[in-house]
Amino acid sequence: MSETILEARGIGFDYPGGIAALHGLDLSIARGRRLAILGPNGAGKTTLLLHLNGTLRPNRGEIRLNGAPGSYTRSGLAAWRGTVGLVLQEADDQLFSASVRQDISFGPLNLGLSDEEARARVEAAVAALHLTHVADRPTHMLSFGQKKRVAIAGIMAMRPAVLVLDEPTAGLDPSGERHLLIALAGLHAAGTTLVFSTHDIDFAWAWADDVALFKDGRVLRQGTAEDILLDAPLLAEVGLAPPLIAEVARRLPGRDPERPLPRRRDELLSLLSGA
Ligand SMILES: Nc1ncnc2c1ncn2[C@@H]1O[C@H](COP(=O)(O)OP(=O)(O)O)[C@@H](O)[C@H]1O
Ligand SMILES: [Mg+2]
User: Fold this and answer.
1) CATH says 4-95+160-241 is which class?
2) Can you tell me which atom of ligand 1 is nearest the CA of 217?
3) Closest to 166 (Cα-Cα) out of 46, 44, 19, 270
4) In this predicted model, what pLDDT tens digit does every residue of 72-114 receive, in sequence order?
5) What is the dihedral of CA 65, 68, 70, 71, to 10 degrees?
6) How close is the Cα of 204 to the center of ligand 1, in Å?
7) Which atom of ligand 1 has the smallest separation from the CA of 20?
8) Distances in Å between the alpha carbon of 122 and those of 38, 40, 102, 143, 195?
């Protein structure tokens, strides 16, 4: 069993006005893995993510970070946010500085890093997310996809141990998505734990090691991507069907059942051409 870095235990949360969003939710996030939080709109994905970095405080239950309950004091939250970085779904909710470079610098400078170290991290994040050509522009003059990448770069530059992204590919065009996925692959290779929410089962299949299936403010089931995403009756409970690439591969005549099913388009295509 791998080590748990972040955990939600019995989280209950009601929004003001009495709207119950989470009902005794349990979730375990293993260090160094990629976890997809998959579920329909309104299942409670965003609400849970806002608990993972202490933005929301649960009405019931607790969030545990490295085996200890999260601390909601000012210094506790600052340390927490250095460990768990959250990228919001709406980049406009996250960007507020005049220029792209200034915006990305905000987090690292707040961590108390030297100017030199902060600058090095900012430049690395700018390059990783292909923002060099817009780095001196005002953030409000960027396209949707560029803003999204700036928001991600700002969190990435803090080098959190756990990077949490709320619906990271929503609204990105194919090239924006490709740049993002390459940057995330680099972070994963460097040991960062990745958590992302999505309602897109094909994206979850392509990228996740583990999946937590959300329904009505609870985790219906958590397990490996194979356990969850190939279980058609389980998925039907949330109105989903298994990933298309896996379904196509499974129906190929003469397929070796011992070989893992392809996760991505290029893997499926090479299987189809008999490679
Ligand atoms: N700011 C809010 N105020 C009141 N209710 C909210 C708010 N945000 C979300 N909710 C409600 O909480 C539930 C979970 O929403 P959310 O966490 O946004 O789900 P998801 O991200 O899976 O779409 C929904 O019933 C939603 O209407
Ligand atoms: Mg959401």
Assistant:
1) alpha beta
2) 14
3) 46
4) 999 999 999 999 999 999 888 888 778 999 999 998 988 888 9
5) -140
6) 21
7) 12
8) 31, 35, 9, 20, 22
